Amino acid sequence: MSEAVAAAKNISSATSSHVGAQAGGAEASYLRISAVVKKFGDHLAVDHIDLDIRKKEIFALLGSSGCGKSTLLRMLAGMETPTSGRIILDGQDMQGLQPYERPVNMMFQNYALFPHMTVEQNVGFGLKQDKVGKDEIAERVAKMLDLVQMRKYAGRKPHQLSGGQQQRVALARSLVKRPKLLLLDEPLGALDKKLRQETQLELVNTIEAVGVTCIMVTHDQEEAMTMASRIGIMSEGKLLQVGTPTEIYEYPNCRFTAEFIGETNMFEGAVVVDEPDKVEINSQELGGVIHIDHGITGPKGMHVWASIRPEDVRLDKQALPPGPNVAAGEVKDIAYLGSYSIYHVKLAGGKVVKSIVPSSRWYDAGETAPSWGDPVYVSWRSDVPVVLTM
Ligand SMILES: Nc1ncnc2c1ncn2[C@@H]1O[C@H](COP(=O)(O)OP(=O)(O)O)[C@@H](O)[C@H]1O
Ligand SMILES: [Mg+2]
């Protein structure tokens, strides 16, 4: 295990004990998912997932299409039965409980509002079915509509609302029964990008105001990073890594996570020096040595990858002395994005390295920005690379 990974794990256990202490007990897990498996025929849609969710947490399951996110959510809601494994919510085993018997509510991407009912009737529907008294329904619906700022639209039908307003009504309907667990499957998937970004923080505010524990599913990493307190990265039915947005970004534990979250430059290589405070990786792709000032534990010659984020790659026009963490190349492409540019630099061996350069970089140095075809030098500090073994 690399030290970076170990560091990430330390951070995450430190965080959890902190929150556990705040919650006032050793039992920090509100929802416990243990060894949950779901097979469809021969296909392992969910592959032995263990996950603990804390009370009032907003947790995002992030992964590409088909990796098993919805299947896991549907098992929590009781719409699919696990092939094996256990789901315990607030001390109660969910096994054998029908969806309507679970203190769980799932909000779907298409909202599934009743078209012939008003906003008020839509939100109150579940309470009416539960035979809650008229006055109490009116009161709880009004409170919920206030919370999502839809009170003045109470008499409208869904088709008279914008997409964002429908989303808020669906959320109010999901929360009015005070579920212990709110499940959101691609909650903003039906909205266009700009509205989605506006709605993300609004949704977080509402969930936090209600104080409900929430698991959301998304394939959009920005959405997960913006909304969630912790993220679980899923691939092919497996949960690869769990951590805060910062932990996942700074200390990915595998290539999949490093490449899935944000952009990175990945250099394949072999360990040539492994000392407690220093690792050197010989990388043909780089045409040189990557020096890292924190250790990994592994035999010499071990096959590894070094992940270096584009914002950590420095670009220079002047030749740098040869050495570790430096390579010469040629500017292949420049994406000018106003306050910064993304340079694509082709190294001698053909590998293209991305570097994000603030526009002020050249001005501050009294230089002009390099342009297409110019010889340049890429480099990074030795505390930057994250060594990955898988
Ligand atoms: N009812 C089903 N029957 C057979 N295969 C299914 C069923 N539901 C999902 N799958 C398969 O399980 C895998 C995971 O699906 P899903 O959980 O919907 O992925 P995601 O939500 O991450 O896109 C996919 O390969 C999908 O085709
Ligand atoms: Mg899905």
Distinctive features:
five-stranded antiparallel beta sheet; six-stranded mixed beta sheet; 10 helices; disordered N terminus; 28% helix; binds adenosine-5'-diphosphate; binds magnesium ion; 390 residues; alpha+beta; 32% strand
Plain-language structure description:
With 390 residues, this protein is of the alpha+beta class. It is 28% helix and 32% strand. It has ten helices and 20 strands.
Question: In terms of structural class, how would the helical and strand content be classed?
Answer: alpha+beta
The string of secondary-structure elements, in order, is HEEEHEEEHHHEHEHEEHHEEEEEEEEHEE
What proportion of the residues form beta strands (DSSP E)? 25-35%
- Biggest sheet strand line-up: 6-7-8-3-9-10
Write the layout of secondary structure elements.
Elements: H1 3-23, E1 31-40, E2 43-53, E3 58-62, H2 69-77, E4 84-89, E5 92-93, E6 104-107, H3 119-129, H4 134-147, H5 163-175, E7 181-185, H6 193-210, E8 213-218, H7 221-227, E9 230-235, E10 238-243, H8 245-250, H9 255-260, E11 265-275, E12 278-283, E13 288-292, E14 303-308, E15 314-316, E16 326-336, E17 340-347, E18 352-358, H10 360-364, E19 375-379, E20 386-388
Parallel strand pairs: 3-8, 3-9, 6-7, 7-8
Antiparallel strand pairs: 1-2, 1-4, 4-5, 9-10, 11-12, 11-14, 12-13, 14-20, 15-19, 16-17, 16-19, 17-18
Helix pairs in contact: 3-4, 3-5, 4-5, 5-6
Bound molecules: adenosine-5'-diphosphate (ADP) and magnesium ion (MG).
Adenosine-5'-diphosphate binds next to strand 2 and helix 2.
